[in-house]
């Protein structure tokens, strides 16, 4: 069965534990799974080549910056984070400071880490609903995210999410700064 749209299952009354969700992902490794803070299981289709390329390019930019600064750890979209609000989410690009990462035990680091990234980039592909991605970004903010970028080429814009600030919308092309979260980092968003 080939998914072309996300499938959302209501598991609110099922109450999967973190370990059960981890095992569910392990035995269904051909699927991309997330769980919202509201108890919805999201089964996502694989991304197309254009979205995969964009994701890879952005991840590479963060990795290159991080190799130079050695300030944290960078994670791909295959990584699931258990957020403090009980959501289990996989951003397209994620970064966590060394101090926060090192506060986790080795066992926590080896499975789905119980931590919200400091910085994320989410890229809207043609199968992603904008409202669902905006809710996901708010879920990150509610869990402690410091800076997040939601890029959607369909409207040629990027939404910037910061703690205790209103969402900012910037039109493409633009260059965004990592501000004081990723000092010295900047990323060019071309017209897609």
Question: What does this 3D model show about the protein?
Answer:
By secondary structure, this protein is α+β, with helices and mostly antiparallel strands. It is built from five helices and 13 strands. The protein has helices spanning 18-27, 49-69, 98-102, 106-110, 130-142, and strands at residues 7-10, 32-35, 40-44, 72-75, 81-82, 88-89, 93-97, 119-123, 147-152, 157-162, 168-171, 174-177, 186-189. The strands form four sheets. It has a six-stranded mixed β-sheet with strand order 4-7-8-9-10-11, sandwiched between helices. It has a three-stranded antiparallel β-sheet with strand order 1-3-2, with no helix packed on it. Strands 5-6 form a two-stranded antiparallel sheet. The longest helix is centred in the first third of the chain and has 21 residues, at 49-69. The protein is globular and about 45 Å long. It starts with 6 loop residues before the first strand and ends with a strand.
């Amino acid at each position: 069965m080939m998914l072309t749209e996300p499938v959302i299952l209501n598991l609110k009354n099922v109450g999967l534990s973190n370990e059960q969700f981890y095992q569910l992902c392990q035995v269904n490794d051909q699927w991309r799974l997330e769980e919202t803070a509201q108890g919805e299981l999201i089964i996502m289709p694989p991304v197309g080549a254009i979205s995969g390329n964009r994701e890879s390019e952005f991840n590479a930019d963060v990795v290159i910056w991080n190799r130079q600064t050695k300030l944290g750890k960078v994670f791909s979209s295959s990584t699931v984070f258990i957020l403090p609000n009980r959501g289990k989410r996989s951003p397209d690009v994620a970064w966590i400071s060394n101090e926060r990462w090192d506060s986790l035990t080795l066992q926590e680091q080896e499975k789905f880490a119980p931590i919200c990234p400091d910085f994320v980039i989410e890229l809207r592909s043609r199968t992603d609903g904008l409202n669902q991605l905006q809710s996901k970004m708010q879920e990150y903010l509610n869990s402690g995210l410091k800076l997040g970028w939601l890029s959607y080429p369909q409207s040629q814009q990027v939404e910037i999410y910061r703690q205790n600030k209103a969402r900012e919308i910037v039109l493409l092309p633009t260059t965004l700064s990592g501000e004081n979260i990723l000092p010295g980092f900047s990323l060019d968003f071309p017209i897609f």
